[in-house]
């Protein structure tokens, strides 16, 4: 019997590293991506074209995209909050880009310096230009469960932003439990609301693991038909504009759980272990000082 396949979208080089306060050498970032490129991933998020004042660690994103050895069949992704970011990402030959919005107003202000409605207005020209260039655009919705500023999120607010990103032309929307405080019950209820609007193959799960429930939240998402999950090797990361949030769920932990549950990921565990060790060493270099 052929196993159902589930894709892990590796976000470590972006979400995993963006929160590190000490500068990480360009060569180390490139080495991490080059290692991951041999792991069997189809998509790896490696860059973020945001203001260098806001996220200094991502300021060398163009150099990362220029320095990596691209493996055929792997798409290298970049965050693009506005048209300026998109133009830089396209010039750096990002294989796909992502706009990132929020289901809550407080986080939208903290992360993008504008309201949810205004963020969608800024995304529209990104989608239009990307469509003209033939570049796929992913969407993120943050704070699908809780907001560090506004408290618990109404699932209806998630549905509205997902629908707006679909209407704009995103090919997939990743639902972010940015704070990592969602319970399986609340994640399941939020997903039921979202799946009343879009099909499960339009959705990815993006769980931070602050409270240690990310794997359980992945399990309830699998039950509802979600088949793409974001993860970061070594479990690094967090968002600098989400106080109290910890790293993404670790790729190696998701890979192990999916294998236990009988799903096929197509990933090479040996390469992932090697990348996880590299990612942890990049962080250790900071901790040692
Ligand atoms: P703003 O201050 O409202 O924008 O920030 P602005 O247009 O007034 O520009 C301010 C400055 O930024 C100017 O430079 C611009 O040139 C520059 P200055 O005059 O001060 O020297 N600027 C840019 N520079 C480089 N690239 C650009 C760009 N745009 C403007 N694209 C802005 C608005 C969006 C720029 C800012 O809020 C920002 O950069 N935010 C990014 C925050 C961020 O990266 N957060 C982490 C990623 S999201 C995340 O981690 C969540 C996720 O993982 C899912 C989840 O877990 O939920 C995806
Ligand atoms: Mg995140």
From TrEMBL:
<comment type="similarity">
    <text>Belongs to the HMG-CoA lyase family.</text>
</comment>
<keyword id="KW-0456">Lyase</keyword>
<keyword id="KW-0479">Metal-binding</keyword>
<dbReference type="InterPro" id="IPR013785">
    <property type="entry name" value="Aldolase_TIM"/>
</dbReference>
<dbReference type="InterPro" id="IPR000891">
    <property type="entry name" value="PYR_CT"/>
</dbReference>
<dbReference type="Pfam" id="PF00682">
    <property type="entry name" value="HMGL-like"/>
</dbReference>
<feature type="domain" description="Pyruvate carboxyltransferase">
    <location>
        <begin position="6"/>
        <end position="273"/>
    </location>
</feature>
<dbReference type="GO" id="GO:0004419">
    <property type="term" value="F:hydroxymethylglutaryl-CoA lyase activity"/>
</dbReference>
<dbReference type="InterPro" id="IPR043594">
    <property type="entry name" value="HMGL"/>
</dbReference>
<dbReference type="GO" id="GO:0046872">
    <property type="term" value="F:metal ion binding"/>
</dbReference>
<dbReference type="GO" id="GO:0006552">
    <property type="term" value="P:L-leucine catabolic process"/>
</dbReference>
<protein>
    <submittedName>
        <fullName>Hydroxymethylglutaryl-CoA lyase</fullName>
    </submittedName>
</protein>
<dbReference type="GO" id="GO:0046951">
    <property type="term" value="P:ketone body biosynthetic process"/>
</dbReference>
């Amino acid at each position: 019997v052929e196993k159902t396949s589930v894709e892990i979208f590796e976000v470590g080089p972006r979400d995993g590293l963006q929160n590190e306060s000490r500068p990480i050498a360009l060569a180390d970032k490139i080495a991490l991506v080059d290692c991951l490129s041999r792991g069997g991933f189809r998509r790896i998020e490696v860059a973020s074209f945001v203001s260098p004042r806001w996220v200094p660690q991502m300021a060398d994103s163009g150099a990362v995209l220029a320095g990596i050895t691209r493996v055929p069949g792997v798409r290298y992704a970049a965050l693009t909050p506005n048209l300026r970011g998109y133009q830089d990402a396209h010039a750096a030959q990002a294989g796909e880009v992502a706009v990132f919005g929020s289901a809550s107003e407080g986080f939208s202000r903290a992360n993008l310096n504008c309201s949810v409605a205004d963020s969608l207005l800024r995304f529209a020209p990104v989608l239009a230009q990307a469509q003209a260039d033939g570049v796929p655009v992913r969407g993120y919705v943050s704070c699908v469960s809780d907001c560090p500023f506004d408290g618990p999120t109404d699932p209806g607010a998630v549905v509205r932003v997902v629908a707006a990103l679909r209407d704009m032309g995103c090919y997939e929307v990743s639902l972010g439990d940015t704070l990592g405080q969602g319970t399986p019950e609340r994640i399941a209820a939020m997903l039921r609301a979202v799946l009343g609007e879009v099909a499960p193959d339009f959705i990815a799960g993006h769980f931070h693991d602050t409270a240690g429930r990310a794997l359980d939240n992945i399990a309830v998402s699998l039950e509802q038909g979600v088949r793409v999950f974001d993860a970061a090797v070594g479990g690094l990361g967090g968002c600098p504009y989400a106080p109290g949030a910890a790293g993404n769920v670790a790729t190696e932990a998701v890979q192990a759980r999916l294998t236990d549950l009988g799903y096929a990921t197509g990933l090479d565990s040996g390469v992932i272990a090697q990348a996880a060790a590299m990612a942890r060493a990049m962080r250790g270099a900071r901790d040692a000082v």
